[in-house]
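Tokens for Reverse transcriptase. Go.
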Amino acid sequence: TAFLPGNLDEYILMSQPEGYEDEDSTEKVCLLKKSLYGLKQSPRQWNQRFDSFMINSGYQRSKYNPCVYTQQLNDGSYIYLLLYVDDM
């Protein structure tokens, strides 16, 4: 479900879903505004959204590993966030 609320930057059209076809207008297609599970762009869109949220929350993305975010607190200690997504 993480991929479902992703916004799309690309212009993507799909055929009418099975069971929801308009029999009077079979040539019409659907314009996607949000990503769907299984769409090749979904993981990338989710990652961009997550990255912008973390940056806006005061974290810095590691130059060496894009899955590591750090934030230094006022007392000098650090918060490390390690992102791991398993699609199995």
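The beta strands are 7-15, 29-34, 60-61, 68-72, 78-82.
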